[in-house]
């Protein structure tokens, strides 16, 4: 089965689970609605609801939820309106609350945490590993975090303090402390006996991390080497020393690229003194990549942050204001560009019908280029040395597209309005605006990155403003020069 078909199968599977939960919720709501319509005293109606609903549908819904993976429950919660979301959340077993909170998106997590009291939050966080608590820390109330710290051992407190001290885009934020490390002077027999003491190995354990007496990292020992070698062989003779080592302060993007490039399942995290402090696993890297992709898509659309699709109207509207305001300014500017050529448009009404073509083609071409630039930036492929060559290449593409599609547009204008001059103006404007769009689509992301900003944030809005206003100015300016 290919990756695409696997993804499709998973999506269909989790969507079917959502439909099943929604069906049970609908049956429950219908039953309660019918009972409330009965002409009975309020106390009797409440008693009837409690008896019938629990017996017929509530238990079935709880049983269904108990059978689902925390990630599937998180998906379902995100897809439900707030009232139903909280109804489902109340039915989830308490011991799984923490795992589900880690899985859901931040906006949905906030709505769930708001509905929980201090004791519930303490219990949910108390069942998590320190790296998972660190993920929840920004959303948990201070008093809950205080309770959590008090409940941890000294070693776990140090781990949690270290985890929350790293920025969200660093390797330290992805780090997992649940790992197995062994000494380099041990034999494989000792290692095997040590591993058998575990009820189960930590997830994604494909290799053991080897350290010396001072916990300094020496290398890794793949699990398959333990199986195929004699028990009396020393670990030090079998370890791989030439292996990728991550550092807590490194950018998480670089770690993600390394995992993709080398097909890693896990990698050690080593501090500046060479000591092993944690590991990064492929599941966390995939979550980071997915989240980064989602954020980039939102940022390109001008959204400041993720939003709960069922959030209150006011909150969702505010999230979209910043770039809408900027877009409004750019549109007004574009309208003033058109207004300054009002006399030319009055003489040649055909110009008004051709304006959207000049702007639209350049906008689409620029957005294509921007997508390529953003991807290359995220992979670290654009450097100071090759940036100029990349700009020249995109300008050359703009010239080629301008000659081809500008020529087509010019012929189109000629056949419509029987004006050779108008056709030439159309071709020239298309050529120049495509070059403007190519320059902007390369320059804007590079400049924003140099300024320390996310190059994906609002790039499409800025490029649209430049190609629209620039296209209007170029087209109408050439028309004023050559047609009047």
- Number of helices in the DSSP assignment: 22
Give the strand order, joined by hyphens, for the main sheet.
1-2-3
Q: Uncertain regions: pLDDT < 50 for 5+ in a row? A: none
Helix and strand sequence: HHHHHHHHHHHEHEEHHEEHHHHHHHH
Number of strands: 5
| Largest sheet composition | 3 strands, mixed
Return the CATH topology of the largest domain: MgtE N-terminal fold
- The CATH C-level class name of the largest domain: Mainly Alpha
Which structural class do you get from the secondary structure elements? mainly alpha
Beta-strand share of residues: 5-15%
Main location: membrane
Family: Belongs to the SLC41A transporter family.
InterPro entries: CBS_dom (IPR000644), CBS_dom_sf (IPR046342), Mg_transptr_MgtE_intracell_dom (IPR006668), MgtE_N_sf (IPR038076), MgtE_transporter (IPR006669), SLC41_membr_dom (IPR006667), SLC41_membr_dom_sf (IPR036739)
Keywords: CBS domain, Cell membrane, Magnesium, Membrane, Metal-binding, Transmembrane, Transmembrane helix, Transport
